[in-house]
Amino acid sequence: MTVDYVIFEGSATTADIDVPEFYERTGDSNPFSQSHIGAISANSGSPSSLSIGDLDNDGDLDALLSYSNLSTYYLENVGTALIPEFQLNTTDNPLAASSGQGSAFGDVDADGDLDVIQVSQTRDGIVYYENQLTQTGTLGFIQKSGTDNPFNNLTVTNVFTPVLVDIDDDGQLELFVTTGGVDSYFCEADLSGVYSVNATNPLSGLHTSTREGLNFTDFDGDNDLDIFVGSGTVVRYLENVGSAASPQFVQRTGAGNPAAGITTASLSAKPFLADLNGDGSQDLVATDLGSNINVRYFRRALHQEAFIAGGATSVTVSIPVVNDVIGMVDRAEYKRRQAPPGIKITPRAFGRDRRLPITNRFRG
Description:
Blueprint: E1 4-7, E2 14-18, E3 22-25, H1 34-37, E4 47-53, E5 62-67, E6 72-77, E7 86-88, E8 102-106, E9 115-119, E10 127-131, H2 133-136, E11 141-144, E12 159-165, E13 174-179, E14 184-189, E15 195-197, E16 213-217, E17 226-231, E18 234-240, E19 249-252, E20 271-274, E21 283-287, E22 295-300, E23 306-307, H3 322-331, H4 333-337, E24 342-343, E25 356-357
Antiparallel strand pairs: 1-2, 2-23, 3-22, 4-5, 5-6, 6-7, 8-9, 9-10, 10-11, 12-13, 13-14, 14-15, 16-17, 17-18, 18-19, 20-21, 21-22, 24-25
């Protein structure tokens, strides 16, 4: 990583360390790379939606990746909350029979597990799948229709990407659905939990592209929700300058947009922010039509202030790499298991059964 710094004239003794808000991790350092999740059929088309959440309630984050051919893939986290590793689970994909190019998580029925809704440009309305995990102890979804589908009364057309979020901090999930036009639907539930379209859309006038992808998160830590928007080839940032109960969004550009340096192929940027490695900061993942890995992974940088002695012209900045190194070691552990039997050489071994083979001059 290149670190730029500026030394101020006069008596100032500090330097401004110019580190990008996000930096991309590739190859084995990307938990969504093909070496981890496996190959997805070329017949799937282009990635159209990405949702991340603890789908199986095991304490780590899983993902659903939807494609333009209406296929949805279950990327199960077989790693941990601190060292994620996503694998394509085709055997136990709970949504293998579903048909949608846009998916979203949310505990719609408030029973402690994540339900899923899906949309498609080829049909109108919202399809609702209720998670049976809390009732049965096993991850699985049942499609609900008619009056059992709280979204059944919605008349929404040309829909592309749904998002379930409590936008006004009232304890009830609201629904945003972007469209093939430069707009979105905003839907709220009544006291009985049935959703209808609300014409007072807090995102009115803020869309700039068709088929946008929305992700709501408290990025600046001020206890209200901001928005990252995938708009064609770029990721825009809308800061909430209102409050948690009364949001008001303003687009930030240039240095005010933490994702300003991220670009993807045409109409494919669908961002999602989550703390994937348990370090307390939000990382960014985004679908990419032009990438053979389909999902790109950007770690959030940890900014630091450097102090320069008077008269000095340089400063050494330490960039934390411990988590990256441990992650790469864990992901390569299968290689050790193919080696000859070994013994632990120290009680300070990195993890359970981390061993070195008994061979002469072994170099790993």
